[in-house]
Amino acid sequence: MITVQNLSKKYKKKLAVDDLSFTVRTGKVTGFLGPNGAGKSTTMRLMLGLDHGAGKTLFDELPLYQHPQPAKVAGILLEAKAFHPTRSARNHLRILAEAGGIPLSRVDEVLEIVGLQDVARKGPGKFSLGMSQRLGIAAALLGEPQYLILDEPANGLDPEGIAWLRQFIKDYADKGNAVFISSHLLSEMAQMADDIIVIGKGKMIAQGSVNEIIAKGTGAGVLVRSSEKTKLKQMLQDKRVNFTASEGGFKVTGMTTEEIGMLLFGAGLPVLELSREEASLEEAFLEMTAGSEEFGTKKEGQQ
What we know:
This protein is an alpha/beta fold. The protein contains 10 helices and 13 strands. It folds into 2 domains: 214 residues, P-loop containing nucleotide triphosphate hydrolases (Rossmann fold); 56 residues, 2-Layer Sandwich (Alpha-Beta Plaits), CATH 3.30.70.
């Protein structure tokens, strides 16, 4: 596993990363979430030894630089356009392979994996952002590493590319590898990740499985609608039920559909809808990170 211990980084007077500790397990996809400016990219650079700061990160009990062939331990994508613009995609990967002690036969293998075999001879300077991301992922895969560390790899990908990336990452982890991935696409992360780490302003906010993180939000509830809306509202108030107005009815929290159904039956109220609404990772994330955004937006009506 990857063991992150007490990472900290300060830029002048700003503490960008504040005593972060967590683990990234093999066989799992770990999502790394946080608002813009939360310190995600800085954390990744600290983990890889690309920035100086306090704390340490161990890859199988050793810092990455102490492994004889780091490229076979960790595959990295931090910047989509980290290549010479006029050197062909194949030659870019060949240079990386030679530097990492990786057989050159691996170059065409990874180009095929990411779907760039048809443009292998072209210079990536004119690649779209999505194609550049694919080339960056190919570079990360060269050494067949046990750990993938990917910073916003879905940026610029079209829907087909995002679906491919999601399945590829899940399959890669299922082979006993670990994938540590940051993304702002929370719906994708909910489908892709096993574990989630949430930070804000450089500090740990929450960590756990996707289900555990979602359960910490208040988005789950039961939608109830009746043709006697006024009487329904009065009944909910009389029973001291927690509810909010929602979609022509009321969203009730803290009760099951069966419990609410019995209340409606006892009150003799007709039921138009009684359905469970599950919470989402996005709802839980927004609740957890409220107030930790570096650049917050005003809500309607705020001065």
